[in-house]
Amino acid sequence: MAVQPPTDKDFSSAYINPQMSYKLRTIGRITLGSSMTAAVAQTQLRIPAKREGDISDSFISLSGTERLPLPSRFLDLKKALTAGHEHRVVDSWKRLLDTLQAENQTIARDGPMIIPNIDFHELDRDLAKLGTEIKKRGVAVVRNVVPEKEARAYKDEIDEYVRQNPSTRGFPQNNPQVFELYWSAPQIKARAHPNLLKTQTALMRLWKSSDPESEISMSQPLIYADRLRIRQPGDANFALGPHIDGGSVERWEPHGYGRGRVYNEIFEGAWEEYDPWDASTRVPAITNNYNGLGACSMFRMFQGWLSMSQTRPLEGTLMVNPLLQLSTAYVLLRPFFQPIKHAGQVSEDEYLSTDNWEFAGASMTSELQGATPGHGQELSAVLHPHLDLKKTMVHVPEIRPGDYVAWHCDIDQVHQGKSASSVLTAFLAGTPGLDFPGGKGESEHINRPDYAYLRSHADPSGLRAHGFEKLNPTAEDTNGAKRIMELANSILGF
Predict the structure, then answer these.
(1) Which of 147, 270, 328, 480 could tie 214 with a disulfide, CB 3.0–4.6 Å?
(2) What pLDDT, in 10s, does the model give residues 397-442?
């Protein structure tokens, strides 16, 4: 589950020029900077380098950090979000719980079959047929994007790259599953692969911009350099549970997602009118007010991975809650409600009953269930009981090498398969490098690809995705899209 899935003076210290950083953050659906060195990109964006770390720093449950109560200003924020229309929020909560109950039963019944499947060779046909369902589920599997033999070879190359560079950081340290690798040869080749870029471009068409002047392009896929994950058989150390990427407390903050009024319909008691596929509201939104390690400061339309191995359900594959609009509304409204009788005092059905939940009102606290500044939003059965996560977190179907998964995601907690589950993350948004823990990274790695390597493996669309070719507006691009591409080309030197 993931929300699409982008200040005031107290939170703008990361940017010397907040307006310019906003423009840079919203080019295409991703970012500039992929063609720059970290130092050059940092100079362009005025973002301070982050300390060294790994993925465990991104989530409270992995970091070992105690989750402390939120400051009282979050209580004031919650009151302000519902002031004057509390009755509409209460009515919408009741409708939401009734709808969730019915949809949860459908997901529990259908399991992985509920995830839409697309064949790359019939991309346009399948998207036309399944587009509405993909929008509802927030996830899709695209088959045969990269030839299977080629995708399997990526895994062997990565193994050799890690062997040649034993200093590579990873988590957990005693048996790394998530490597701080961003620029290995297979990652470069996969990001520049014409089939992958064609797939990303097609998926971007599921989005719309309700404001034609909004400075965002949905016709130009640009790369986002993220980490590499290889989960080993039987691994139980990397037990990251259900979570939502793209910030946490920022979803409720007026100087976060509130800058774009992204979730206003939900907070106003009309969650049915909330459209998670309107990109124009995301342009001014800020998703990372606290410079968290691993927190993405960019608007990302999708996250995705390209499989390098065959992986069946229960073998460490991705798990999702395929109810994008409903799950988003529930997570955002949950902090305003409390049970009358608590779990353990009554049966589960009575506990979850709409009649057992009330608007917190005078009893409201500062808590935003599972949200901590500087860390990702985490979900649990205790904090979010009506999502019925045990039944509605479903595995994606069996994945073969070369298949591509695009999602609003949650990650499977335990890998019980017979072979390593490997993915190349290909996030469709963000600033490569600067969002992640700092340090020297791969700067001293043996056989790290350079610009010449990229040019030898990328066609014009691949070079454009990396920032080495000029962005060209299409006939369908809006005025806002054309302006932001002009700015991007200017910064890139075209």
Answers:
(1) 480
(2) 999 999 999 985 333 332 344 455 554 433 222 223 666 666 667 7
pLDDT of residue 245: 82
Say if residues 314 and 395 touch (Cβ distance below 8 Å).
yes
Q: What is the model's pLDDT at position 342?
A: 96
9-492 folds as: Jelly Rolls (2.60.120)
Q: What is the pTM assigned to this prediction?
A: 0.83
